[in-house]
């Protein structure tokens, strides 16, 4: 136990030693906000960060434009075993239209980079030849032995940093899952800025839909009866959804905009376009909600004589599956660092959004905690953009990175923990599939 705590201390020291470099990385990303799939500057900044010779210790193997144009991968550890333990830290870095980094994805990138550096530094501090055992405390002699004549980590595990673009729009992690980027990973870590500290929040499933109405143009004053008004269809659709809300479950969400409402007041609009996001706690509920919403769109077309085209997004976001073993250990480590977590009641009754990390939790065990950044500003506001770029946020961001790295060390060395994490993953996923089957 003492040896493990010493490794955690080394991880925390590494974060402090690299604080200026990490802060500069975050500020670089924050100052040049880029939208989904176009995060070229952020991609280059992060790949330079891991490729740079100024980082302490052995070099990272960096793969720019990894399976997506603005994704990347950085690996440390030779992984000479056939099946090494592989832990991954995720970085997000896309921004919001018009608001910049109003969801603090520059801080997500910083947390992922900092936690990976910290874990690497802790393992590199084990310079003496040792008999390494995954799931066994350093220095003990019990358990299955994996002989490492040099550094522990080089032979026993691989640390991976995945740059995952397009969380706000499109689902970059889903693209990467389909491309095999998450194959072979054992545990995945990521943390998201918020207004509170929570080891878990019940992020919900999400489906986006684009609706297009096609009518017939005509002069709105001279002969409006010759037109078929696509704007009427859009307004009816919006109102249909407003009527539906009385019968919606409290946990369901529908929100959208009219992207195109016509071109000129004296022309009957022949084309309108709407975009909506639908959210529900599970994929099963989401499919029920989607059917109800699509009926609202279709009926508006019938009432106005328009043709309607309904197109769903390619990548539905899944709800985030909890992993109680990881959450418990993360909270224990966080409390040692002074993190004050919200109550379980607050978690169950709290507000949440959606993230493509949910899809990740269906293929590999993971943890997605939320962290306070020193501001009560709400995400997706101009005030949160300012907070995400502030010096105040740095303390909280780096403290969170320390907690993630400490949790990763527990996964490696605490007897039985890795298997508990895997068992939680299997049980929760099976329960989800049984309770919420998707036809």
Task: Please provide the count of β strands.
Answer: 14
The mean pLDDT is 92
Count of domain modules: 2
End-to-end separation in angstroms reads 48 Å
* Overall body shape: elongated
Kindly describe this structure.
By secondary structure, the chain is α/β, with parallel strands linked by helices. It folds into two domains: 2-203 and 319-435, Aminopeptidase (3-Layer(aba) Sandwich); 205-312, Alpha-Beta Plaits (2-Layer Sandwich), CATH 3.30.70. 41% of the residues lie in helices and 17% in strands. It is built from 14 helices and 14 strands. The chain has helices at 2-17, 19-30, 40-51, 105-124, 152-156, 172-178, 230-244, 283-304, 324-336, 344-349, 357-360, 382-388, 392-413, 417-435; strands at residues 61-63, 72-76, 85-91, 130-132, 146-148, 157-163, 187-189, 192-194, 205-214, 253-260, 271-280, 307-312, 366-367, 370-372. The strands form four sheets. It has a six-stranded mixed sheet. It has a four-stranded antiparallel sheet with strand order 10-11-9-12. Strand 1 and strand 2 form a beta hairpin. The longest helix is centred in the last third of the chain and has 22 residues, at 283-304. The model is unreliable at 128-133 and 141-155 (pLDDT under 50).
List strands and helices in order, with pairings.
Blueprint (H helix, E strand, L loop, with lengths): L1 H16 L1 H12 L9 H12 L9 E3 L8 E5 L8 E7 L13 H20 L5 E3 L13 E3 L3 H5 E7 L8 H7 L8 E3 L2 E3 L10 E10 L15 H15 L8 E8 L10 E10 L2 H22 L2 E6 L11 H13 L7 H6 L7 H4 L5 E2 L2 E3 L9 H7 L3 H22 L3 H19 L4
Parallel strand pairs: 3-6, 3-7, 7-13, 8-14
Antiparallel strand pairs: 1-2, 2-6, 4-5, 9-11, 9-12, 10-11
Helix pairs in contact: 1-4, 1-13, 2-4, 4-13, 7-8, 9-13
């Amino acid at each position: 136990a003492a040896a493990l705590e010493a490794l955690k201390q080394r991880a925390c020291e590494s974060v402090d030693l690299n604080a200026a470099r990490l802060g500069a990385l975050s500020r670089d990303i924050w100052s040049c906000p880029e939208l989904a799939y176009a995060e070229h500057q952020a991609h280059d900044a992060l790949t330079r960060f891991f490729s740079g010779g100024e980082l302490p210790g052995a070099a990272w193997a960096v793969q720019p434009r990894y399976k997506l144009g603005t994704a990347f991968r950085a690996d440390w550890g030779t992984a000479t075993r056939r099946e090494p333990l592989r832990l991954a830290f995720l970085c997000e870095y896309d921004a919001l239209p018009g608001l910049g980094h109003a969801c603090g994805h520059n801080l997500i990138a910083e947390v992922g980079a900092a936690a990976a550096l910290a874990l690497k530094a802790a393992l590199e501090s084990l310079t003496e030849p040792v008999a390494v055992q995954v799931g066994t405390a350093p220095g003990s002699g019990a358990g299955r032995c994996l002989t490492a004549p040099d550094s522990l980590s080089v032979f026993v595990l691989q640390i991976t940093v995945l740059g995952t673009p397009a969380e706000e729009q499109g689902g970059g992690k889903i693209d990467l899952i389909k491309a095999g980027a998450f194959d072979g990973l054992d545990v995945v870590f990521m943390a998201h800025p918020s207004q509170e500290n929570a080891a878990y929040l019940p992020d919900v499933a999400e489906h986006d839909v684009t609706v297009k109405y096609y009518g017939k143009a005509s002069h709105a004053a001279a002969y409006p009866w010759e037109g078929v008004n696509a704007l009427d269809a859009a307004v009816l659709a919006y109102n249909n959804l407003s009527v539906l809300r009385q019968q919606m479950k409290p946990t369901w969400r529908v929100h959208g905009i009219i992207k195109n409402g016509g071109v000129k007041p004296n022309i009957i609009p022949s084309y309108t376009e709407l975009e909506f996001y639908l959210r529900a706690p599970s994929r099963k509920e989401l499919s029920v909600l989607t059917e109800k919403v699509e009926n609202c769109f279709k009926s508006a077309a019938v009432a106005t004589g328009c043709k309607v085209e309904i197109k769903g997004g390619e990548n539905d976001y899944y709800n985030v599956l909890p992993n109680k073993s990881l959450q418990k250990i993360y909270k224990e480590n966080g409390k040692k660092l002074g993190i004050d977590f919200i109550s379980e009641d607050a978690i169950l009754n709290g507000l949440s959004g959606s993230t493509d990390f949910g899809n990740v939790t269906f293929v590999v065990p993971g943890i997605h905690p939320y962290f306070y950044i020193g501001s009560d500003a709400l995400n997706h506001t101009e005030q949160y953009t300012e907070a995400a770029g502030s010096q105040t946020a740095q303390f909280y961001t780096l403290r969170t990175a320390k907690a993630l790295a400490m949790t990763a060390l527990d996964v490696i060395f605490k007897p039985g923990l890795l298997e508990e994490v895997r068992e939680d993953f299997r049980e929760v996923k099976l329960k989800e599939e049984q309770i919420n089957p998707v036809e």
